[in-house]
Structures are given as C-alpha cells and as structure tokens.
Write a structure and sequence with these properties.
- There is one protein chain.
- The protein is α/β, with parallel strands linked by helices.
- It contains 14 helices and 16 strands.
- The strands form 4 sheets. Strands 2-11-10-9-8-3-4 form a 7-stranded mixed β-sheet, with helices on both faces. Strands 6-12-13-16-15 form a 5-stranded mixed β-sheet. A two-stranded parallel ribbon has the order 1-14.
- Helix 4 packs parallel to helix 5 and helix 11 packs parallel to helix 14.
- The radius of gyration is 22 Å and the shape is globular.
- The termini are far apart.
- 47% of the residues are buried.
Length: 423
C-alpha cells in the first residue's frame, strides 16, 4: 500500500506556478510594520477624509434591521445598485439599468477578476499599458491569457516633470493588436504614475478596439481625483459602450479601502458574463457595508454638481498635499513626476541612489526602498512592481510615494527627507 508524503501536493498548480507567492504589498507592508516606518507606501488615508462615513455606519447599525445581516442580491444590494446606476448615468450621460448593467463586487480586485476570467479563453491576448497595477498580469495568466505589454515612457528629463510627459509609442501600441487580441486593460487616472489619458489617447485606443473587435476593461477607481486634466470615460466615446466595462471602487470613491467594495458598470451582455464568475466564486458581498455605501452615494448624488460634493472636494483636499510632497522631494534631491490625478507620486532616485544597482535577483528601486525602510524609517513602494520583467528597466529609477496622509504623517516624512543623506 502506497504511503507517499502529502508534500508532493504542496506545489502550486500549473495556473499559479508562474505567479508564485511573492506579492509586493505583503512584502513591503510587513517590512514597514516591522521597522515602524513612516508609511507613504500603501495607498490609503490615515485620517478621516469622508467626515460622514462613520455617521452612516452608526445610522445603519441603530436601525437594527435584521435584513442588513443576511444575504442580499448576488449582483449587488439593490439600494447600492440603484445608487451606482444613478451616479454613473449622470457621469456618462446615458440611462444605466441597475438590474443588469451594474455588478457589485469584492473590491475593484473582484471586478477585474470577474471580467478577465469571464472574457478570456486559453491563448487569448490581453494588452496591458505599463505601468500597471500589479494584479492585472497574474489574473490574466490565471485565465490562460497571454499578456502583451505596451509601456508609457518619459519624454522629458527635466528636474520636474508631470505624468503628462509620459506616453506610449503609437507604432508600438498599434502593433500590439492582432487577431488574438481579446482585451485591452487601461487605468486612468493611472496608478502609480497619476497620468490621465487625453481624449486623443483614448480615441486612439477606441479606434484600435473597434478595428480589431477588442473589448476594453477601464479601471477608473481614481476617477474623482483629478488636478490638471479632466477625466474622460472611454465608454462615452462612439462605439465603445458596447465593448467596455468600467471598474469603480468604494475604497477610492469614499476613501474607505477597508470596505472592500467595488463595482462593474457596462452593457448587460458583458455584465452577464462577469456575474457568472461572481455568482460561482464570491456570490454576494456583505449586505451591511453595501447599505452604508449606498447611503454615501445618495448623499453625494444630492449635491453632485456642488463644490461640497466629496467627488469634487477630494481633489481640492489633496492638491496641497501633492504640491507639498513635490517640494520636499525636490529639496531632498529627488526628481518628482507631478501626477495629474490619483494620490501617488513617482520620484526619480538617480541622484540620491548612485550606489544602488539592479542585478539578476533584485532591481535597484527595490533595494533602495528596503534601505529607506530599514535605515531611514520611511516606507515607499518600488516602481518596478508595476512593470513586466521585460520593461522593468524603464521603472527601476523611480519609487512611489502616497501623499493621502495626515499632516502629522507628512511632517514626519518631511523630517526624514530633509536629512536624507545616503550612506
């Protein structure tokens, strides 16, 4: 009788083996925690930005409704689905059906996973614009797809540049499309760069999608955080609604990353496919937090065109923090890339880290970030985490800072940066 060790089953299955168990957030969050570093790494506010969020939580709790503690609709708590449909209807200028054109998910991660898993078949290709949020490629590989990466590249080497100075090579983008291209995944405003795609850039993508009959996943979680350019939704361009799903997030819309609620908005034919994956994996998201976020949406809908609407005021709240961090980085010898949107800022470390070099095991930005955490007590994120292996050389001279932080946190970071003498 065979008595083989159970350890023979301890390896990843063939879908996950190319991905492994390394994750930038797990690694660097733990490092920041272990060294008690000032955390400008992870993207979340460390203060109450949405003043009424706790009030809505207490409001729901005081109602003592048993229904809030039970299963709700799989595609989304109806009150929340209605609110999302109303909001995006106004933002896109079209009527959106809450029953079949909205899907509430477990964060934007859930939306992305549902879409990629349901749209892609074995050997389909997905175009991913770099830099990209790090989960895009693993999800695509798990779905059996082939990733085709098109990088944004800096077009200026001035001491201070903006995210608008980064663009793709038109020929490179066009050549990425072929008969196997099923999807293109874009992120605007972009994390980590902060770039907001122009109408011309989006139109170029739209034209290629229509020409090659390609679907588009548009990750727009930072849609309301804009400074120097208007956010344009690719789904509103001619011929794109029927081939686009848009991803949103409560973590970004209401600065509540712990809510872990996201949503997918798009034509019913595509939402149906996403919902099938959702039904057979997550099934439904927590009812209570959906009720809370629904009430937050309803409040903002009542003042959507007014300055006090959080979807408008958050940019005014964060712009001074952005500008302050940029000055601190310049004074410390780094070259910031001023973001047009979002709450992250890349900074070129070439001048302050001449003794750090990439090798076969680790990129220079990763080495430098570990140095900052361990020796200086400041946590950031290496930019190469947002690039494919073939294009990490583009990102290795940059690290990512989050400026959505309390003034006390930024002040602590300022003291470290003022004394940033690299040993």
């Amino acid at each position: 009788m065979s008595e083989e060790s159970a350890s023979k089953h301890y390896d990843f299955n063939k879908k996950y083996s190319p991905i492994g168990d390394k994750n930038v957030w797990v690694e660097f969050t733990a490092l920041a925690r272990d060294y008690k570093a000032v955390n400008l790494g992870q993207g979340f506010p460390d203060y109450d930005s949405v003043k009424y969020l706790n009030e809505k939580v207490l409001e729901c709790a005081k109602e003592s409704s048993n229904i809030f503690h039970q299963y709700t609709r799989s595609p989304g708590h109806l009150r929340l689905a209605n609110a999302i449909a109303s909001c995006y209807g106004k933002l896109t200028g079209r009527e959106i059906n809450p029953l079949n054109e909205v899907l509430v998910t477990s964060g934007a991660y859930g939306s992305l996973f549902n879409a990629i898993s349901s749209f892609m078949s074995e050997n389909d290709e997905i175009i991913i614009i770099e830099p990209f949020f790090d989960c895009y490629a693993p999800m695509s590989v798990i779905a059996g797809g082939k990733c085709v990466f098109v990088p944004l590249k800096p077009k200026s080497d001035k001491d201070v540049t903006t995210s608008a100075d980064w663009s793709w090579d038109t020929n490179e983008l066009e050549s990425a499309f072929n008969s196997k291209t099923k999807l293109i995944l874009i992120n605007t405003p972009n994390n980590p760069l902060g770039k907001i795609y122009t109408r011309e850039e989006l139109q170029q993508i739209a034209d290629l999608c229509i020409k090659h009959n390609t679907l588009c996943i548009s990750d727009e979680v930072y849609e309301h955080i804009t400074y120097d350019r208007e956010h344009i939704r690719i789904s509103t361009l001619p011929g794109m609604w029927e081939r686009t799903i848009t991803v949103g997030s409560a973590g970004k819309a209401f600065s509540s990353t712990g809510a872990k609620l996201g949503w997918t908005v798009g034509p019913k034919e595509l939402i149906r496919l996403c919902q099938s994956v959702h039904n057979n994996s997550i099934y439904c998201c927590p009812t209570f937090i959906q009720e809370v976020i629904a009430r937050c949406f309803e409040l903002e809908l009542s003042r959507l065109d007014k300055d006090e609407c959080y979807f408008r005021s958050i940019s005014a709240e964060l712009k001074p923090k952005r500008d302050r961090l940029a000055k601190l980085l310049i004074d410390a010898g780094l070259k910031p890339v001023i973001p047009e949107g979002g709450y992250f800022m890349l900074a070129d470390i070439s001048k302050v880290a001449p003794n750090f070099h990439s090798d076969q095991t680790e990129c220079k930005d990763s080495k430098f970030v570990k140095y900052l955490i361990k020796e200086k007590g400041l946590a950031t994120i290496p930019n190469t985490a947002f690039y494919s292996d073939e294009h990490k050389i583009i990102g290795e001279n940059f690290i990512r800072f989050c400026f959505f932080k309390d003034e006390k946190t930024l002040e602590k970071a300022a003291e470290i940066l003022k004394n940033l003498h690299i040993d």
